[in-house]
């Protein structure tokens, strides 16, 4: 049975087109626990920001969540929280087509195929397969070229880093038909402990000049605001989607006086008081990112007005 989606739940391609036109980036926020989805959505509604709610395949496994359970909670919150701002439901880093098919069936409006560790030809083949399938179902597709490092191994398995080559990006986008491209240009997943964040702006500009698709920056947690703003406002179009996950979980755990992450079921068993305390902390972080970091606060009305 196909899920009927509210009109404000949109595909990633539409959201990124609007973001580039408006000179801001969409925050792609991973709540990691289903009870925290409401907090992310509340921040978007409060700041009138278009946004993306996401979870990666590895996070689904680590926290004990299915794509359907995540989507069900997302759509329940859209209704119960009376969310009116534009929202994308996105499946992040995924290597398995079966998970992509499951997410699309559950109502995700965007999926990411990540075959970036493979040879270019195999990455192209896998990404094209995902794009062809998703497009047949009216869903946007993100892929990755180059390898984005990690510090916490929550979203990805490896910490290798390989910067994206602009000429390879031109070929990759042309042959796969993907809607968004995650590029490697200096950021990393997780918390910056030793390495400091950096962004290769010239590389970003070269990639965007050669490709018609919008660019995604993973590893947004911990990147200075001025550095991110420059990446978003590059002449000719910069970054239109920024992934933020670790900062949300750290805020949630800190609010509860915890350091160790928990399973999704353990989170759901928290007292109502602790859940609201955690939600308030996550909402505050997301609202701050929207206002100070991404430039998307107050842009929901502009999106809705000019989206069609």
UniProtKB/TrEMBL annotation:
Catalytic residues in the record: 92
Cofactor binding note of this UniProt entry: Binds 2 Zn(2+) ions per subunit. One is catalytic and the other provides a structural contribution.
Keywords noted in UniProt: Metal-binding, Zinc
SUPFAM superfamilies noted in UniProt: Aldolase
Matching CDD domains: TBP_aldolase_IIB
GO biological process, one term: carbohydrate metabolic process
Residues binding Zn(2+) 2, per UniProt: 114, 144
Signal peptide: none
InterPro entries tied to this protein: Aldolase_TIM, Class_II_FBP_aldolase, FBA_II
Protein name as it appears in the record: Ketose-bisphosphate aldolase
Organism lineage: Bacteria, Bacillati, Bacillota, Bacilli, Bacillales
